[in-house]
Amino acid sequence: MKIRGLVTSAVVGSLTLALLSGCMDSLAKQTQKKPNEGIIGKKTDDIKEFDPNAAKQIVSDSKVKVDDPVLYAMQAYGPMIEQISTMYIDHAIDLFHASEDRYPKDYNEFMTRIIKENQIQLPVLPGGAKYAYDVEKHKLRIVKAMDMGPNAPPAPAKK
After folding, report:
1. Cα–Cα nearest to 43, from 159, 142, 124
2. What is the 3-state secondary structure (H, E, C) of 94-118?
3. Which residues have C-beta within 8 Å of that of residue 28, sequence separation ≥ 6?
């Protein structure tokens, strides 16, 4: 009788551990980030060199344009992130200018001395927009592709 009780206890204990370990594994999988979960909270240091003559690109004016009060926060998110990121980089460039008495001479120096040395990480932009550094004007630009589908901004007027 004692052996049968011990065997039963061992079987029940083993089943309980197996079930709990399966639940814990499932819980761990649920809390892991999925690859296409969104951009909020994600950071990047991917900043391209700005090409003012590139075709099929629009430089964002970073103005908040809201046409639906229900979607206000969603429509304001992108332009607000653009404004904050631009101000952050402008400040870093101003500090570089104050200490070196010059601006970064080229894109490589900007990336090395400002982005890499200061370990700057900017928020990932919504809608496929990208960061680009304008060497001539010493400014961070937000560049959007003109062929972004139905959400594409209007093409700039031809002069």
Report:
1. 124
2. HHHHHHHCCCCCCHHHHHHHHHHCC
3. none
Report the SS3 class of residue 152: coil
* 122 contacts: CB under 8 Å, gap ≥ 6: 43, 44, 45, 47, 85, 88, 89, 131
Phi, psi of 53, rounded to the nearest 5 degrees: -100, 5
pLDDT tens for the 159 residues of the chain, in order = 556 555 555 555 565 555 555 554 444 444 454 556 777 778 888 999 998 888 788 888 888 888 888 887 888 888 888 888 999 999 999 999 999 999 999 999 999 999 999 999 999 888 888 999 999 999 999 998 876 544 554 554 444
Token pair, residue 103, equals: 């601006």
Q: What is the pTM of this model?
A: 0.64
Burial of 28: CB neighbours in 10 Å, binned 0-12, 13-18, 19+? exposed
Q: With contact defined as beta carbons under 8 Å apart, do 58 and 128 qualify?
A: no
Q: Is 147 helix (H, G, I), strand (E, B) or coil?
A: coil
